[in-house]
Write a structure and sequence with these properties.
Largest sheet of chain B: 6 strands, antiparallel, barrel
Oligomer: heterodimer
CATH architecture of the largest domain in chain B: Beta Barrel
Helix content of chain B: 25-40%
Structural class of chain A: mainly alpha
Shape of chain A: globular
CATH superfamily of the largest domain in chain B: Rod shape-determining protein MreC, domain 1
CATH topology of the largest domain in chain B: Thrombin, subunit H
Largest sheet of chain A: none
Strand content of chain B: 25-35%
Order of helices and strands of chain A: HHHHHH
Distance between the termini of chain B: 118 Å
Number of strands of chain A: 0
Order of helices and strands of chain B: HEEEEEEEEEEEEH
CATH architecture of chain A: Orthogonal Bundle
CATH topology of chain A: Arp2/3 complex 21 kDa subunit ARPC3
Number of helices of chain B: 2
Strand order of the largest sheet of chain B: 1-2-5-4-3-12
CATH class of the largest domain in chain B: Mainly Beta
Radius of gyration of chain A: 15 Å
Number of domains of chain B: 2
């Protein structure tokens, strides 16, 4: 459990640091740690999702050099919320996955913006949403859906093997 | 379970808010430093892994590119080689045809150019097949020459092809004489692919290695003065009636590709049409 946690969160960080720049499309990079947190929360529940979100966000905060704790808070909230609601969602359906990930990314962006407003963050909401959050949300949606599909396929293979 | 979840969430949120509060109260540097103290080794590790992954990836890409480029260059090289060979071949063919044309223009005879399409090079028979036949009015025993000298005579005429008996064929005989001494003899082919000049010893005094042997024109098949070969060795048989001189052909029969068939009147001396060193 702990190994899985460390591997997934730090692996997500590594992938984010390694692949995100390479995966950039029109200057939009996916938020891979957020996708990892969402996947963990769906599979392991709210506590796991919350702690994973906290650690992943904290790493991103420290790496980014801004206010430490913002992404840790938003991602832990997303992780917890999704972990708690995961049981009621049919997340294996692509029609749920893509919009779900898009909405979660947007929600995370809105919470993050709101939180940053307390610290007088200067960027306008509209621009931030149009040029940063929404494109990234769409990207996360498709990338996350592909990951979910890959995981579901791996699980099916495992089941067939056993 | 629910209580535990709420407790975890509360702790995490509290930790985040504490971090943010500490930073807004002007203690951002120590907080960041404290966290950096914990996270820097992790980040360094991640960065190292990242660099390693990137290095491996770029090495792989380089290798792949080099491999692809290598393959492309090999193909290009091969294509250029083929093209170069084609160009060389065309240039050589052009040169040969020019020489043949020049010879055709110099000769006071009616000629027909032909291309060799097959070779029979066994010991029993030595022949060439050309792409001219009955349709081109080729007659049996027509003399066949190249810019270097005599090749042989047509032995068989077919509808679209003719078979030429080469001078080195064991059954080939041609009336000839040595240019320098005017010694007459018969050039015969040998099974081992060479030629010899059979001459009367009494008249043959003075034949030397290197002497040029040309057709004598006797018999009317071959015009007079076509180079046949050069004396390579003399077989002195003492008091025998005939002596033999081994000849090196002036024509490399294995390499000749285009020839001229002498279709007109052959009662001419054509020595002047051949190069001075070949025609004597």
């Amino acid at each position: 459990m702990k190994t899985l946690f460390v591997l997934t969160v730090f692996g997500g960080g590594l992938v984010h640091a390694t692949l995100a720049p390479a995966l950039r499309i029109a200057d939009v990079a996916p938020d891979i740690p957020l996708i990892v947190v969402i996947l963990l929360a769906l599979r392991r529940g709210p506590e796991f999702g919350c702690v994973a979100g906290f650690v992943a966000g904290l790493l991103q905060d420290v790496a980014a050099g801004g206010l430490i704790g913002v992404q840790a808070l938003t991602k832990s909230l997303v992780g917890f919320g999704l972990g708690a609601a995961g049981g009621r969602l049919r997340v294996t359906q692509p029609l749920v996955q893509v919009p779900g990930l898009v909405l979660l990314t947007v929600a995370e962006g809105v919470v993050r913006f709101t939180l940053l407003q307390l610290f007088r963050f200067p960027a306008p909401f509209g621009e931030l949403m149009t040029f940063v959050v929404l494109p990234q949300a769409l990207y996360n949606g498709f990338l996350g859906a592909a990951l979910v599909f890959a995981l579901a396929w791996t699980d099916a293979l495992k089941e067939r093997a056993t | 379970m629910k209580m535990r979840g709420v407790l975890v969430l509360g702790t995490v949120v509290a930790a985040c808010l504490l971090l943010l509060t500490v930073q807004t109260r002007g203690h951002s540097t120590p907080t960041a430093e404290a966290l950096a103290f914990i996270t820097t080794p992790i980040q360094s590790g991640l960065a190292k892994m990242n660099r390693a992954a990137v290095n491996v990836w770029s090495t792989y890409l380089d290798w792949k590119n080099v491999r692809a480029e290598n393959r492309r260059l090999r193909e290009e090289n091969q294509q250029l080689r083929v093209e170069s060979l084609q160009v060389t071949e065309t240039a050589m063919e052009n040169q040969r045809l020019r020489r043949l044309l020049a010879l055709q223009q110099r000769l006071p005879l009616a000629t027909l150019s032909a291309e060799i399409i097959a070779r029979e090079w066994g010991g029993w028979v030595r022949s060439l097949t050309v792409n001219r036949g009955r349709g081109d009015n080729v007659a049996r025993l027509t003399a066949v020459i190249s810019p270097e000298g005599l090749i042989g005579r047509v032995m068989e005429v077919r509808s679209g092809t003719s078979v030429i008996q080469v001078l080195t064929d064991p059954a080939s005989t041609v009336g000839a004489h040595v240019v320098r001494t005017r010694t007459a003899g018969i050039v015969e082919g040998e099974p081992r692919g060479t030629m010899r000049l059979k001459y009367m010893a009494r008249e043959g005094g003075g034949i030397q290695v290197g002497d040029l042997v040309v057709t004598s024109g006797a018999g009317g098949v071959f015009p007079r003065g076509i180079p046949i070969g050069r004396v390579r060795a003399i077989d002195d048989r003492g008091s025998a009636l005939f002596h033999y001189a081994v000849l090196a052909p002036v024509v490399d029969f294995a390499r000749v590709d285009e020839v001229l068939l002498l279709t007109g009147d052959t009662r001419h001396d054509v020595a002047a049409a051949f190069p001075r060193d070949g025609g004597g």
